[in-house]
């Protein structure tokens, strides 16, 4: 199953974190679908950044602000009157969470509470999707993937802050938006947990693919901390499609689709860091290779993967792109950047290409698609 474009036509959608990597891809996709998009976020987190390179703000209402600022956030939501909120604003880097733990908890936990409290004070919202992380699970270094009902946890500030965001969301849903009273309050809430997303336009520090691109584009070897660590890699469009599909279903049947959802790649695409580095180097044509960093590093999980059976069986979502293809598209995007090509056009072309991989019936009703 794919998306129903008619659902999104002129639908009011508000995204927090729209200036970031995932938020920029999502904002551009929703603009393409014809939604009325607004966004609330800090300044783009890097220079360069996808938000500006793909001219994302041109097609939406954008306000720069911090989700820790409740009054500004609540006022903006009240002014925009969105039906759907996708809350993606976060401090999203594990290493930074060690350097700035208080900022991480304030943004990821209190920021989530601020969004949900704003929804409580606004009568237009019908769907809320809170984006957390695959790292919200208590990682036991299991060989099998984690399911939505596994215990939450985290041994570093980033991971535990995302587990806390899950708990805050569940508490708000149970206390203020209970499913048994859905007809009264009309708000359906879900959390979404994705794997390690990749794609063009990411320049974050201490993230594998941007580190690889920076090294290869300057002819230097890639420096790798944990080459044997296994992660659930996936192109950024894969979980974003899951979020959009889930929003459609929540709007139509909130009682059935509320709760937590995993959107991870096929098990064969949970690959070691070294495999990703070597595959990207081959695609890029780089000859400098890679080196393992020496010295002490903060602890990281050796293996982490997600079980997306629920999304497959209940929602009808499944991965459409192999990891190899995802890396090919990523290299294509960064090569275009270095050639000073039109990156909004390329980003939209990749979204078009991705949409061609799955069924997208503009005439399908929600009930037919269920």
Give the class from helix and strand content and strand pairing.
alpha/beta
User: What's the Cα radius of gyration?
Assistant: 20 Å
Quaternary organisation of the protein chains = single chain
The fraction of residues assigned to DSSP E strands is: 5-15%
pLDDT below 50 for ≥5 consecutive residues: which ranges?
Answer: 362-370
How would the global form be characterised? globular
Helix and strand string, N-terminal first?
HEHEHEHEHHEHHEEHEEHHEEHEHHHH
Provide an overview of this structure.
The structure is a single chain. With 370 residues, this protein is α/β, with parallel strands linked by helices. It contains 16 helices and twelve strands. The chain has helices at 5-8, 21-33, 50-53, 70-80, 94-99, 101-120, 157-176, 182-185, 208-217, 237-252, 254-257, 273-284, 309-315, 323-338, 343-355, 366-369; strands at 12-16, 36-41, 61-64, 84-87, 127-131, 188-194, 196-198, 222-224, 230-235, 259-263, 270-272, 290-292. Helix 4 (70-80) runs parallel beside helix 6. The longest helix is centred in the N-terminal third of the chain and has 20 residues, at 101-120. Residues 362-370 have low confidence and may be disordered.
Write the layout of secondary structure elements.
Elements: H1 5-8, E1 12-16, H2 21-33, E2 36-41, H3 50-53, E3 61-64, H4 70-80, E4 84-87, H5 94-99, H6 101-120, E5 127-131, H7 157-176, H8 182-185, E6 188-194, E7 196-198, H9 208-217, E8 222-224, E9 230-235, H10 237-252, H11 254-257, E10 259-263, E11 270-272, H12 273-284, E12 290-292, H13 309-315, H14 323-338, H15 343-355, H16 366-369
Parallel strand pairs: 1-2, 1-4, 2-3, 4-5, 5-6, 6-10, 7-9, 8-12
Antiparallel strand pairs: 9-11
């Amino acid at each position: 199953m794919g998306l129903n474009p008619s659902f999104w036509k002129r639908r009011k959608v508000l995204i927090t974190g729209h200036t970031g990597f995932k938020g920029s891809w999502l904002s551009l996709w929703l603009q393409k679908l014809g939604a009325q998009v607004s966004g609330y976020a800090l300044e783009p987190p890097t220079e360069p950044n996808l938000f500006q390179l793909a001219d994302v703000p041109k097609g939406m209402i954008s306000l720069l602000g911090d989700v820790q600022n409740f009054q500004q956030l609540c006022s903006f939501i009240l002014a925009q009157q969105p039906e759907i909120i996708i809350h993606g604003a976060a401090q999203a880097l594990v290493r930074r969470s060690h350097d700035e733990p208080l900022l991480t908890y304030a943004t990821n936990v209190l920021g989530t509470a601020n969004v949900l409290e704003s929804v409580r004070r606004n009568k237009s919202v019908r769907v809320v999707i809170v984006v957390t992380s695959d790292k919200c699970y208590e990682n036991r270094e299991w060989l099998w993937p984690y399911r939505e009902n596994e215990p939450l946890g985290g041994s570093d500030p980033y991971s535990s802050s995302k587990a806390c965001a899950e708990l805050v969301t569940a508490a708000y849903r149970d206390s203020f938006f209970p499913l048994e009273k859905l007809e009264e309050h009309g708000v359906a809430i879900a959390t979404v947990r994705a794997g390690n997303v990749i794609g063009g336009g990411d320049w974050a520090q201490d993230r594998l693919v941007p580190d690889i691109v920076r090294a290869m584009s300057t002819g230097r070897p890639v420096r790798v901390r944990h080459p044997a660590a296994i992660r659930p890699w996936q192109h950024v469009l894969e979980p974003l499609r899951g979020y959009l599909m889930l929003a459609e279903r929540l709007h139509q049947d909130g009682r059935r689709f509320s709760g937590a959802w995993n959107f991870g790649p096929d098990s064969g695409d949970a690959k070691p860091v070294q495999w990703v580095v070597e595959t990207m180097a081959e695609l890029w044509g780089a000859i400098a290779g890679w080196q393992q960093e020496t010295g002490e590093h903060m602890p990281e999980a050796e293996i982490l993967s997600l079980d997306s059976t629920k999304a497959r069986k209940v929602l009808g979502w499944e991965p459409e792109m192999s990891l190899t293809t995802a890396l090919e598209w990523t290299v294509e995007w960064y090569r275009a950047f270095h050639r000073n090509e039109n990156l909004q056009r390329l980003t939209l072309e990749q979204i078009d290409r991705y949409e061609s991989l799955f069924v997208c019936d503009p005439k399908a009703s929600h009930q037919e698609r269920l």
